[in-house]
# Entry
Amino acid sequence: MNSSPIKSGTLTPEFSQNSPLVRYALRGLERCWLPEHGCWSHIYHLDGRASPNESLRRSDVFYTLNVLLGMSRIKEVPSSINLSETFYQNAVQLTVLSVPKYALGMALWVSAELSLELPEQVRREVKALLSDQAGWKTFRAQDLGMLLTGVVAQARAGGKEWVPFAAPLYRFLQERFYTGSGLFFDAASGFRRRFASFATQIYLSIACYHYGEFAGESSALAMAGACVRKLIALQGPDGEWPWFFDAAGGRVLDFYEVYSVHQYGMAPALLEWAERYRIRGARDALIKGFNWVLGQNQLRRSMLVPDLGLTIRSQVRKQELTTRAPRMLRAIKNAYSGHESGLIENAGVGLRLECRSYELGWILWSFGQRGDLLELTHASAFGRVLIPA
# Structure
């Protein structure tokens, strides 16, 4: 990557092979670039402050890997972005910084998708982690999901050394994270286990699809399909994806926060698999969820920031913009009372005015290869569509 910020206008819009949606996300990523660190930022604040980019190194690194994953699927990468250099500079930081285990899984996935060599120190650390099966009991859903997906991606790319880890990881998932309700647990054990997020469902379902297709494992495909069907059944009236679930009971404990990245990025990434396996309602759920971002939501406002190419992070209960404590207490109460949560009155809902670079990376991943959803990828909200001469 160049030491200077990514230059806008690197791609000539008239002749770009990328859709307006992808170009929109690439423009937003220009704003999030941190030249002093060679990565994309932890947060871009949308509250008007003079220096909107906030860096948190361990988060910058992971988010940058997530963006690079998205870059692997777009049709035209801006010439100012050096994929291999950016990958290596950030991947090596995984062994220096205190990063979550799932970041190592993302490094596996990205290196496979971009056909880039994994730095040796990262390879050693991932192998040590995967070889310590006793330590797997500490995995959260995102750790397990990304590690399994990364291992399968490496194996598919010809990395035979990773193949022996795939089946044991999947069996661990099947034995310790499957609930029978259609949803997945968030952890292998403990009180926190049943309180699962939307992200829990996404990462484990995607991992099951990857492994099921790679290994010809029908049980993995069945679990992923059951989770998709359950999520579709629990999708909100305006297409919003709930944030918090009672995994054991298969119930929504809290819709909030409703995150834009789930609507336009992570849910479409899973539903693309579901469409391939002919899950009823998957395409409609994807479109409805995406339209939530375009303004068909509870507040009837767009979650886009067109001048910047960015998105507003979420719709959130106003009193919970700075604390999660009430949300956790409410979830516990709902879980043990049997109450199922719904949407609250509009007056109590506000906006979290920030954008995180990985969110734009999910747009690139989920829509970089899609040419069949023009109503989304070429929506007028993403700018004028210019046709090459």
